[in-house]
Specification:
mainly beta, GH38_C, 1 helix, alpha-mannosidase activity, 29% strand, two-stranded antiparallel ribbon, Mannosidase, alpha, class 2B, member 1, 6 strands, Immunoglobulin-like
Length: 149
């Protein structure tokens, strides 16, 4: 409920050089940035312009293991390849949560437990068509995009 109130649509009016009004041509009354709905357990947390050709994209899995009805707390795979209506993702790089380092090259503190060092597998190659989110996981990406006309 709090999320619905906080993220409720707001109308903003301003003078601008937008599309001119043409009598006889139906104005665009509805727009969606997504071509299809995200799975119910996935929330698009951040979509922000990073620079001219890239965006910061952050996705979160909203449920913990055993929470929610049905299988909403299971890992979920999202296809980002053709999800957005205004652009196409041409390349994807995962970053740390703060988006200040690429995940593959992040310098992390290394702890050596009494049982010996724990192996750290390298992050898998990213496929924008198959991003998997584990329960309660937030993943952050820099997406290189091609804007649609």
């Amino acid at each position: 409920q709090a999320e619905k109130e906080l993220l409720a649509p707001q109308v903003g009016l301003a003078p601008g050089g937008g599309a001119p009004y043409h009598p006889g041509v139906a104005p665009l009354k509805q727009f969606s940035g997504l071509r299809r709905e995200l799975p119910p357990s996935v929330h698009l947390l951040t979509l922000a312009r990073w620079d001219r050709t890239s965006l910061l994209l952050r996705l979160e899995h909203q449920f913990a293991v055993g929470e929610g009805s049905g299988n909403w707390s299971s890992p979920v795979t999202v296809n980002l390849k053709d999800l957005f209506s205004a652009f196409t993702i041409t390349d994807l790089q995962e970053t740390t949560l703060a988006a200040n380092q690429l995940r593959a090259g992040a310098s992390r503190l290394k702890w050596t437990p009494a049982t010996g060092p724990a192996p750290q597998p390298p992050p898998p190659r990213l496929d924008p068509a198959a991003i998997t989110l584990q329960p309660m996981e937030i993943r952050t990406f820099l997406a290189l995009v091609q804007w649609k006309e």
